[in-house]
């Protein structure tokens, strides 16, 4: 579809190019419909680079097109990507006086277009090299305002020379202090504040304003749509190695000062002079900080500079500035909308830099004490998700508890938003810990406190908003916590904080197979974490000595037995057909009261004598697993029937050990009970649901060996150990 639209543009463009060479009276048809059609296509999709360059050639040279058509084409020169350098040079070549130049009105329109698309120009360096040519055209009154604006955008320290200052002063006096010349003089003075320009820069002349904010907004929409279609991120219009100067500064951008450096010396370099990554690296040590360090909130280049050359003063100024904004809102000097606009800028800064300066926490502590919880709370969540790694209890007391109190409205949506916030925070803290050497002494305590707090939140959520979406959000948090206790670098220092048993068993009996698989994967990962911690402790005891941090990872018998209970109950349900049994060591019967188990045991046969409560949560019968299990049997039957025409019976399901024996006798496929169950586990893993298999393999060593050594031959499959030999292997406490 995109190629067809570009072809449409090229076809219409060729008609216009041909018409531009023919006198109006000699044309077979009017050119105006083609111009209107091209303008519409450019407005809808933007012009590809080749079409844009060709159209600029048409309008930048004398042609037989009427002025109205040329004006319409220039007004719709919307580039879909970066403006090619050839188009920029063609506009520069069209400026000036002469028979081969377009009219001064067209030249002014082209200069206005360069200002409009300046942020996506691919030929800024060419404009810099053409600075002398452009400057010498300032005496042409018809194009002076647009030309001065363009010069103000491309002016750098190297362009400011005494002879140019003198020329500007003379021209300004001759024109009665023309506003555009005064604005350009002010740009010159920014680079050299010590220059003497007299009264020339005084008065009410305003800074250069964007020519057409609506045109720029439409261009941004076109470019965003083009990037989404082509996934060409390399041609993104914003350059992180240039000072960010949005030509159509929105109100929120306008509240944050722009990067502006004065009082620079000849030996220093300002951020405004940086033109790319190479220039930034070359001058990193000589770069001067701008006047307003608060500009770091909105300028990517200044953010990079302060990350590489940290300045605590900058963060203090940002905190003071935010505090002033908050005071203005409280005192009625600014509306609440102003505060949210500023917080949006803060959010963008924090998300880009992945850093929330600790001094800003003081601002949020004051803010939450006054906030009603209304407004754009997602901005607050995005910012606090990057809070620095501190003691969680302290953070909770001063930041998160006031936040929860402010936003609490007894709705499950708010609880889910808080859960997402804490998941983001844990992910951020994991990143910080991986880059820390050594780890903070409070690392394990802070992580465990966060997990305990979220565990209570998760239990509340399961009660108020049960469902797969809630279960998925809860498991996302625990999956993040597992990375801490299984990572080779962090595991020796981070203690495993188990989910509360009610949470585990609620998820274990979820109707979602994805939930069940993810929970089992988390529990299996905990087993590896426990084993690594115990192996480390055993090695330390044999070798002597040790670290007090590792001593904190010692787990007492009751804690380990709680975890072993999860393993035993899962195996009893899925593998051993002993659901809710508490007869084995560590088995907790899934925390069901014995009176309830007895009542259910008597009730199930009353409904159907073929069933028993103890086997209703096996691979064949569990609500989350039964469909996948019988589907796998159907696949095995289909594959067998393709090669063996003697098979005449199918399994009706659900599969049991005795039903498989009856199936073989009745002329169906021959499948052992062990082979069937292992095949189901392997199939689940192949389909992206490996959790149940991982948990059972990590719990039962014989099953693990059987699955890993299983070959495709029937002879090897017959050696799978029997059920009685596959008892769960828990952990022993140290």
UniProtKB/TrEMBL annotation:
It is found in: Chromosome, Centromere; Nucleus. Keywords: Centromere, Chromosome, Nucleus. Residues 705-734 are annotated as: Disordered. Its main location: nucleus. It comes from the Eukaryota. Transmembrane segments: none annotated. GO terms for cellular component: inner kinetochore; nucleus. GO terms for biological process: CENP-A containing chromatin assembly; mitotic sister chromatid segregation. Belongs to the CENP-I/CTF3 family. PANTHER family: CENTROMERE PROTEIN I. This is Centromere protein I. It comes from Tolypocladium ophioglossoides (strain CBS 100239) (Snaketongue truffleclub).
């Amino acid at each position: 579809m995109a190629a067809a639209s570009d072809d449409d543009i090229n076809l219409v463009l060729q008609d216009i190019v041909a018409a531009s060479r023919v006198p109006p009276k000699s044309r077979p048809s009017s050119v105006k419909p083609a111009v209107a059609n091209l303008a519409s296509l450019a407005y809808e999709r933007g012009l590809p680079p080749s079409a844009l360059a060709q159209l600029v050639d048409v309008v930048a040279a004398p042609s037989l097109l009427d002025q109205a058509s040329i004006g319409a084409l220039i007004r719709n020169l919307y580039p879909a990507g970066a403006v090619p350098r050839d188009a920029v040079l063609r506009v520069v070549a069209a400026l000036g006086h002469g028979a081969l130049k377009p009219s001064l009105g067209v030249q002014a329109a082209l200069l206005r277009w360069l200002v409009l698309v300046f942020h996506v120009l691919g030929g800024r360096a060419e404009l810099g090299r053409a600075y002398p040519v452009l400057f010498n055209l300032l005496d042409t009154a018809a194009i002076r305002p647009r030309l001065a604006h363009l010069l103000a955008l491309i002016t750098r320290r190297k362009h400011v020379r005494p002879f140019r200052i003198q020329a500007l002063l003379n021209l300004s006096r001759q024109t009665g202090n023309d506003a555009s010349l005064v604005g350009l003089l002010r740009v010159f003075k920014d680079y050299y504040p010590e220059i003497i320009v007299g009264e020339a820069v005084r008065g009410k002349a305003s800074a250069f304003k964007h020519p057409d904010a609506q045109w720029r907004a439409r261009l941004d929409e076109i470019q965003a749509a083009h990037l989404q279609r082509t996934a060409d991120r390399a041609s993104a219009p914003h350059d992180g190695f240039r000072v960010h100067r949005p030509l159509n500064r929105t109100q929120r951008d306008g509240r944050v000062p722009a990067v502006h450096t004065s009082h620079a010396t000849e030996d220093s370099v300002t951020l405004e002079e940086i033109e790319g990554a190479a220039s930034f690296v070359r001058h990193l040590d000589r770069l001067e900080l701008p006047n307003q360090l608060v500009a770091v909130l909105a300028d990517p280049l200044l953010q990079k500079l302060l990350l590489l050359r940290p300045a605590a003063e900058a963060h203090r100024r940002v905190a003071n500035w935010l505090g002033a904004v908050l005071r203005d809102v409280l005192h009625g000097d600014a509306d609440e909308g102003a505060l949210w606009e500023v917080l949006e800028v803060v959010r963008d800064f924090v998300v880009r830099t992945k850093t929330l300066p600790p001094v800003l926490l003081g601002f949020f502590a004051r803010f939450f004490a006054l906030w009603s919880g209304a407004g754009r709370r997602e901005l607050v969540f995005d910012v606090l998700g990057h809070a620095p790694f501190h003691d969680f209890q302290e953070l909770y007391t001063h930041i998160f508890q006031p936040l929860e109190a402010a936003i609490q409205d007894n709705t499950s949506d708010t609880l889910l938003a808080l859960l997402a916030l804490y998941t983001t925070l844990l992910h951020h803290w994991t990143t910080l810990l991986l880059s820390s050497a050594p780890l903070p002494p409070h690392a394990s305590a802070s992580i465990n406190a966060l997990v305990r707090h979220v565990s209570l939140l998760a239990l509340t959520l399961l009660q108020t908003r049960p469902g797969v979406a809630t279960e998925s959000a809860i498991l996302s948090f625990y999956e993040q916590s597992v990375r801490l206790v299984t990572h080779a670098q962090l595991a020796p220092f981070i203690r495993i904080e188990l989910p509360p048993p009610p949470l585990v068993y609620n998820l274990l009996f979820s109707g979602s197979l994805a939930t069940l698989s993810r929970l089992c994967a988390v529990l299996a990962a905990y087993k590896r974490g426990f084993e690594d911690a115990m192996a480390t402790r055993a090695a330390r005891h044999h070798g002597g000595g040790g670290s007090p941090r590792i001593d904190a990872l010692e787990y007492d018998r009751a804690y380990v037995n709680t975890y072993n209970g999860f393993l035993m109950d899962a195996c009893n349900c899925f593998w051993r057909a002993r659901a809710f049994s508490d007869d084995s060591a560590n088995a907790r019967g899934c925390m069901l009261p014995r009176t309830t188990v007895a009542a259910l045991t008597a009730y199930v046969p009353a409904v159907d004598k073929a069933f028993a409560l103890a086997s209703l949560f096996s691979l064949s019968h569990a609500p989350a697993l039964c469909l996948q299990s019988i589907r796998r049997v159907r696949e095995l039957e289909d594959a067998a029937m393709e090669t063996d025409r003697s098979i005449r019976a199918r399994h009706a399901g659900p599969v049991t050990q005795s039903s498989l024996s009856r199936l073989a006798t009745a002329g169906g496929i021959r499948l052992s009970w062990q082979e069937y169950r292992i095949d189901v586990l392997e199939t689940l893993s192949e389909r992206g649901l490996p959790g149940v298999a991982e948990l059972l393999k990590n719990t039962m060593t014989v099953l693990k060996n059987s699955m890993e050594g299983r070959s495709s031959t029937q002879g090897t499959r017959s050696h799978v150990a029997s059920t009685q030999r596959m008892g769960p292997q828990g952990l022993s406490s140290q």
